[in-house]
């Protein structure tokens, strides 16, 4: 295997169209095009997302190659997100990747989006220090659509220890934001306002689920009823208490996430603990990781901010790691919206 193998990564699982180029696990470029159209709907509209991907995919790949200083003929393989995600969005990325690979006669690599979030820890970037976690390590993967605790034994051996049985933590953030009248995407804005609020101003019931699994649907419902009752008493309640509300709901979600992660670390006896996924960019979650690291003598790992949210850099590097093991795909492989655990 050529250690300098050039990989083109394509990510289109939701509403970000992204392309990246890596040489080995060194990222040469990572381009992301978002979609503003979804803000007015307070969430991603699948049909609009797939149409936007169709408009964005060619220029995004063009810029990624340009920024990497490479021509398409310099690419040795194409990696793309196969699952999970919005099927229409995935189809756009898969179709482009297949056509690109077929036209150049180079191999394809299919990538699991959730595994890519975890393997983002193995990205080399010119801008950051390379500090990957050693195997085995425990990783909390938390995003808008998924929440999992994974035991990572190697780059190709990942075991799910716990997962959400209903909604994801990111959904809880976005739903709470919508209830408070905060624009989409709500998670980053809740984080922003929470820095100005009192996290103990309001108390919300935490879901109780056995083992290492999560549940957030009940928390979303209880927050909805709480706000409904307060708004009846005072129509300006959300506006007048925005910072405290954001700080309190954020603290509740982060506490729930950390309780299970602490349990996972203790039950496995592993002290190397990582977080990944879009919600890993949340400042309160990062602070909680720092606190627990000191308390439990963990060594913690958090990806660089640019590789936390959906991006093709993590797809390219995961593709490279799979290529090193000879795990290539076929033109007949198809994207799937869900994966079986």
How would you describe this protein?
Helix content is 42%, strand content 18%. It is built from 10 helices and 10 strands. It has helices spanning 46-68, 87-104, 113-119, 169-179, 186-194, 217-233, 237-240, 242-268, 283-296, 312-324; strands at 6-11, 17-23, 26-33, 77-83, 108-112, 137-142, 147-154, 157-163, 272-276, 299-301. The strands form 2 sheets. A 5-stranded mixed beta sheet has the order 3-2-1-4-5, with helices on both faces. A 5-stranded mixed beta sheet has the order 8-7-6-9-10, with helices on both faces. A hairpin with a 2-residue loop joins strand 2 (17-23) and strand 3 (26-33). The mean pLDDT is 93.
Which key phrases capture this entry?
341 residues; alpha/beta; Nucleotidyltransferase, domain 5; 2 domains; five-stranded mixed β-sheet; 10 helices; 10 strands
Blueprint (SSEs and pairs):
Blueprint: E1 6-11, E2 17-23, E3 26-33, H1 46-68, E4 77-83, H2 87-104, E5 108-112, H3 113-119, E6 137-142, E7 147-154, E8 157-163, H4 169-179, H5 186-194, H6 217-233, H7 237-240, H8 242-268, E9 272-276, H9 283-296, E10 299-301, H10 312-324
Parallel strand pairs: 1-4, 4-5, 6-9, 9-10
Antiparallel strand pairs: 1-2, 2-3, 6-7, 7-8
Q: Return the domain count.
A: 2
Number of strands: 10
Order of H and E elements? EEEHEHEHEEEHHHHHEHEH
Percent range for β-strand residues: 15-25%
| Assembly context of the chains | single chain
In short:
This protein is an alpha/beta fold and 341 residues long.
């Amino acid at each position: 295997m050529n250690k300098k193998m050039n990989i083109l990564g394509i990510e289109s699982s939701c509403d970000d169209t992204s392309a990246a180029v890596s040489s080995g696990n060194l990222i040469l470029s990572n381009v992301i095009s978002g979609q503003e159209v979804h803000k007015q709907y307070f969430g991603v509209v699948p049909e609009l997302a797939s149409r936007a991907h169709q408009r964005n995919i060619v220029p995004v790949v063009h810029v990624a190659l340009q920024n990497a200083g490479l021509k398409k003929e310099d690419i040795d393989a194409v990696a793309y997100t196969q699952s999970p995600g919005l099927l229409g969005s995935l189809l756009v990325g898969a179709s482009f990747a297949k056509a690109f690979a077929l036209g150049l006669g180079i191999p394809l690599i299919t990538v699991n989006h959730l595994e890519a979030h975890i393997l983002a820890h193995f990205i080399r970037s010119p801008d950051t220090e390379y500090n990957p976690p050693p195997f085995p390590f425990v990783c909390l993967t938390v995003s808008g659509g998924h929440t999992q605790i994974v035991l990572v034994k190697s780059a190709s051996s990942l075991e799910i220890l716990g997962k959400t049985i209903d909604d994801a933590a990111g959904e809880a953030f976005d739903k709470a934001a919508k209830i408070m009248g905060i624009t989409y995407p709500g998670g980053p804005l809740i984080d922003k306002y929470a820095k100005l609020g009192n996290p103990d101003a309001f108390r919300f019931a935490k879901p109780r689920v056995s083992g290492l699994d999560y549940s957030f649907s009940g928390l979303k419902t209880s927050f909805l009823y709480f706000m409904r009752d307060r708004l009846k008493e005072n129509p300006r309640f959300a506006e007048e208490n925005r910072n405290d509300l954001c700080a309190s709901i954020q603290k509740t979600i982060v506490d729930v996430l950390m309780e299970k992660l602490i349990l996972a670390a203790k039950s496995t006896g592993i002290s190397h603990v990582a977080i990944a996924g879009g919600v890993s960019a949340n400042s309160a979650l990062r602070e909680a990781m720092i606190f627990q690291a000191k308390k439990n003598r963990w060594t913690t790992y958090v990806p660089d901010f640019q590789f936390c949210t959906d991006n093709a850099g993590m797809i390219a590097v995961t593709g490279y790691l799979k290529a090193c093991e000879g795990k290539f795909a076929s033109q007949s492989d198809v994207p799937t919206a869900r994966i079986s655990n």
